[in-house]
Design brief:
The complex is a heterodimer. Helices cover 44% and strands 17% of the residues of chain A. By secondary structure, chain A is of the alpha+beta class. Chain A folds into six domains: 55 residues; 94 residues, Alpha-Beta Plaits; 119 residues; 81 residues, Calcium-transporting ATPase, cytoplasmic transduction domain A (Distorted Sandwich), CATH 2.70.150.10; 145 residues, HAD superfamily/HAD-like (Rossmann fold); 100 residues, Calcium-transporting ATPase, cytoplasmic domain N (3-Layer(aba) Sandwich), CATH 3.40.1110. In chain A, the strands form six sheets. In chain A, strands 16-28-27-26-17-24-25 form a seven-stranded mixed sheet, with helices on both faces. In chain A, strands 8-7-9-15-10-13 form a six-stranded antiparallel sheet, with no helix packed on it. A six-stranded antiparallel sheet of chain A has the order 18-23-22-21-20-19, with helices on one face. In chain A, helix 8 runs antiparallel to helix 10, helix 11 runs parallel beside helix 25 and helix 15 runs parallel beside helix 25. The radius of gyration of chain A is 33 Å and the shape is elongated. Chain A starts with 17 loop residues before the first strand and ends with a helix. The model of chain A has no long low-confidence stretch (mean pLDDT 80). Chain B is elongated. Chain B is built from three helices and no strands. By secondary structure, chain B is mainly alpha-helical. Chain B has one domain. Helices cover 63% and strands 0% of the residues of chain B. Classes of the chains: A alpha+beta, B mainly alpha. Chains A and B meet through helix 4, strand 5, helix 5, helix 7 and helix 8 of A and helix 1, helix 2 and helix 3 of B.
Chain lengths: 790, 62
């Protein structure tokens, strides 16, 4: 069978191919989107990128809550009764076609006046006429073309987001002042005693002074604040010598020009601040489309449908009270713990546990918040409010209010303590020496030492090394929150893995058949029966079985929660649970099985095993050399034997762990001095991820949401984890080398300072030279590491 | 008299004008998204082609 891919979404058209003109589509949804675009002359969409689309989902009634004034108010940033502006997050935005089509929404509907995409954040900002159009209609419109927005409880509670641009302002000011001061001070470097220069140099100097005022008092204020905080906490952090250097530079330069002693060091001063801020800017690079701070609010819907006296109306999630009857549609999330009243529930708890296999529930069964209904409509009764539900309670734990960076001393800060003390003692000794030899030079030497020893190069080593590593890791789909996470990653000695969804892969499981061998006609029948079902187990089994000819079945029926029944000519085939096919279950409650009977004769069963990620054994064998390894699973022990075979013998395997248990397990080991790396995926790992020193979330699809963590690792790169850790360790080594390099510069500088011959031109050369060479060294070295990673 | 005073003040005024332009640009959010504009720029041609044939049909109500 030749592979035909869908013209719209690029998926395989495996069972149904719909032909329009000369294009093939995998489903009616894709075809409809194509028709909408071609009708409106927007087929350019397909010229920019091949198959850029997404299948539009069934959203009937899902966004009814967007009719409520209160919710509209929260979701729009501007509303004057006639024009509304809203910003929607659309996870599917991934290519230039997406930008193009979303910025041409006004061609689809006249009421939309403009729309602007922010590709990095995956958002679109839409301005529309609210008199003839509504927010709900916008959402329906963009959903109908495959760009369903993601509207969660988070949007509702956070409201307007403030963008912090101070660093760009500061960088701009420092750069502006640096450039101008450089121009103004350049003549004095060389043309000493020239007539015109002598005449105007005072004015030049005072202009330089004016330029440096905003640099010292605005652009550099963070260093003074941080140094003050450090000193108050009795900590000599790296900002102490920096603030000292900046302060001394400014005061001495001002005094020099005021009393006509020299030209001052304004060039070095502004350059220093500029370079330091560049380092910060570089390190600040983050992944704006990823969020590392998510809690359950990002997953939960804003509103659900409440049923009361046969009427349906939207109800805000926070307003759900015990006893409310809720209607949960296909693909909707269950917001509270409750009891299933009617309807066939098939709940996908993959948000919570990482396990994507759905669980069937009968009416009267308990449902937990966080599950996603995946077959038809159900009605449930709420037992608790949102905040008190089993899953959401986890977030009341203190660990979510702690800032991990607070307790962590970076390499730079631990070295700066010794550095500062050394510099101060050199300054004092040199001053005492000069007080004896030539007292007039003593003050000069003292300030010169503090100026030249200002640890600009040291302060730049870590930002540039880690900043570059962050970028390299990002290219390899390992998204790290910030530089201090990399430093922590280099120091870990215990690695804890969640099982389901973390070391097992979501979509592929393997199945083993036990029982009477199936004849080839039976197997063909089995395959054909499975074709009609969308149940995940059916899909898995279908993919495992050999190719067979497609036959039309005489009858086919899917009994929700039980199994499939099909007839073809005289044959009857039943696939499903043991009771469904009429077989007594032999107590295999620990594993997932599918039983098969043909013509009412029991044939056998397929037992499903977790499929572990590629390279798992190799990864564990690599990691065990330097770390303790633990697998901490919320599941039962069904996979124990299987795991024992796969993993090194030293690995601890612990099962039946509740979310709180995982958190406490990590806390206990940390109290014994372990540096813990937690690798997890679902919301149930959120506590453990927050408690650990470094929490990495594994994600099959980066656009889909992962819990709060320090880093997100794409599942396809899971087997590279050991190399990422090794690379972080090399990063630390690079920083140590660049410290050594900057000490060399400092010693050269100190020679000039201590001997009392520090001219502004020397400082102006030495400071940028040391900074730039550190930047070059760290960039080259990290790129070298990056190349070895690939 | 000294032309240098005039030159200096002109140069500083020019520098400050550009600096203000930078501040305004940041304030308007031009530095918030550094990727999308680079892609958007490349669309212009196709849009012009599109506009030259006025075939935008009224959208069926949704």
């Amino acid at each position: 069978m030749a592979e035909t891919t869908c013209f719209h979404c690029g998926d395989d058209c495996n069972s149904t191919i719909i032909k329009v003109e000369d294009k093939s589509f995998c489903c009616n949804g894709c075809k409809t989107v194509y028709e909408i675009f071609s009708e409106n002359d927007l087929t350019c969409y397909y010229d920019l990128e091949a198959s850029p689309g997404a299948v539009p989902k069934e959203i009937q009634g899902k966004y009814d809550f967007l009719d409520q004034e209160e919710i509209i108010d929260k979701l729009t940033e501007f509303n004057d009764g006639e024009t509304q502006i809203t910003t929607l997050l659309i996870p599917h935005i991934h290519c230039s076609s997406c930008i193009w089509i979303l910025e041409n929404l006004n061609k689809l509907n006249d009421n939309i006046s403009s729309s602007q995409v922010n590709f990095g954040k995956k958002t679109v900002r839409i301005t529309f006429n609210s008199k003839s159009f509504s927010l709900k209609e916008i959402v329906l419109l963009i959903s109908s073309i495959g760009y369903e927005p993601y509207i969660s409880l988070d949007d509702y509670s956070s409201g307007q987001k403030h963008i912090d641009r101070t660093l760009i302002y500061k960088l701009g000011i420092a750069g502006f002042a640096f450039g101008n001061v450089m121009f103004l001070s350049f003549p004095e470097y060389f043309e000493v005693g020239e007539f015109w220069l002598e005449k105007y140099k005072h004015m030049f100097r005072w202009i330089m002074f004016a330029f440096s005022i905003p640099v010292v008092f605005y652009a550099a204020q963070d260093y003074f604040i941080s140094a003050y905080k450090g000193l108050r906490a009795k900590l000599l952090n790296i900002d102490v010598p920096i603030a000292l250097g900046i302060g001394v530079l400014f005061i001495r330069s001002t005094l020099e020009i005021a009393f006509d002693l020299g030209s001052g060091f304004f060039d070095s001063l502004t350059g220093l601040v500029f370079f330091l801020l560049i380092g910060r800017f570089f390190q600040q690079k983050t992944y704006s489309f990823l969020s590392f701070e998510r809690d359950y609010k990002s997953y939960f819907p804003i509103a659900v449908t409440k049923v009361s006296k046969g009427e349906e109306f939207p109800l805000q999630v926070y307003d759900i009270k015990k006893g409310d009857r809720l209607l949960i549609r296909n693909e909707e999330l269950i917001p509270v713990d409750g009891i299933l009243i009617n309807g066939k529930a098939r709940i996908d708890y993959s948000f919570v546990t990482g396990e994507s296999k759905t669980i069937s529930k009968k009416s009267g069964d308990k449902l937990f918040a966080g599950g996603k209904q995946s077959s038809g409509v159900i009605e449930m009764e709420a037992l608790k409010s949102v905040e008190q539900s089993y899953l959401t309670q986890l977030w009341s734990n203190d660990v979510f209010n702690k800032n991990k960076e607070d307790g962590f001393r970076t390499l730079t800060n631990s070295i700066s303590k010794h550095f500062t003390l050394a510099v101060l003692s050199i300054a004092v000794i040199a001053t005492i020496y000069w007080l004896i030899v030539d007292a007039s030079l003593a003050m000069n030497v003292f300030t010169a030492v503090l100026i030249i020893a200002c640890p600009c190069a040291i302060a730049l080593s870590a930002p540039f090394t880690f900043g570059n590593l962050l970028r390299i890791f990002g290219k390899l789909k390992f998204y790290v929150k910030n530089a201090s996470v990399l430093e922590q990653l280099a120091s870990i000695n215990t690695i804890i893995f969640d099982k389901t969804g973390t070391i097992t892969s979501n979509d592929k499981s393997s199945a083993v058949y036990n029982g009477i061998a199936l004849s080839s006609s039976e197997e063909q029948m089995l395959k054909n029966t499975l074709r009609g079902s969308n149940h995940p187990l059916s899909r898995t089994l279908y993919d495992i079985l050999k190719e067979h000819d497609i036959e039309t079945l005489d009858s086919f029926e899917e009994h929700l929660g039980q199994g499939l029944e099909a007839t073809h000519r005289a044959n009857i085939m039943k696939i499903g649970s043991a009771t469904f096919v009429g077989h007594k279950d032999e107590g295999s409650a620990l594993s997932t099985t599918v039983h098969i009977s043909s013509n009412n004769i029991y044939k056998g069963k397929f037992t499903f095993y977790n499929k572990y990620r590629k390279g798992l054994s190799k990864l564990f064998n690599q990691l065990k050399k330097e770390n303790d390894l633990v697998v901490l699973s919320g599941d039962n022990e069904g996979e124990l034997e299987n795991l024992k075979k796969l993993l090194p013998t030293k690995t601890k395997l612990i099962f039946n762990q509740k979310p709180e248990d995982k958190l406490e397990y990590i806390e206990y080991h940390q109290s014994e001095g372990a540096k813990v790396l937690m690798v997890g995926d679902g919301l149930n790992d959120a506590g453990a991820l927050a408690q650990s020193d470094v929490g990495i979330a594994i994600s099959e699809n980066i656009n889909v949401f992962s819990p709060a963590c320090d880093a997100i690792l794409d599942a396809s790169k899971f087997n590279l984890l050991d190399r990422f850790i090794a690379a972080s360790k090399s990063g630390i080594r690079i920083i140590k080398w660049s410290f050594a390099l900057s000490f060399v510069y400092n010693i050269v500088g100190l020679y000039f300072a201590v001997t009392g011959q520090l001219a502004p031109v020397v400082a102006a050369i030495l400071m940028p030279l040391s900074s730039i060479s550190i930047v070059i060294f760290t960039t080259l070295a990290t790129n070298f590491i990056g190349r070895r990673l690939e | 008299m000294s032309v240098i005073y005039i030159l200096l003040s002109i140069s500083i005024v020019v520098a400050v004008i550009f600096f203000i332009a930078f501040i305004i640009a940041v304030k308007n959010g031009q530095y918030d998204d550094s990727y999308t504009p680079s892609v958007r720029m490349l669309f212009e041609d196709e849009l012009v082609k599109e506009d030259s044939k006025p075939t935008v049909k009224p959208k069926k109500s949704n």
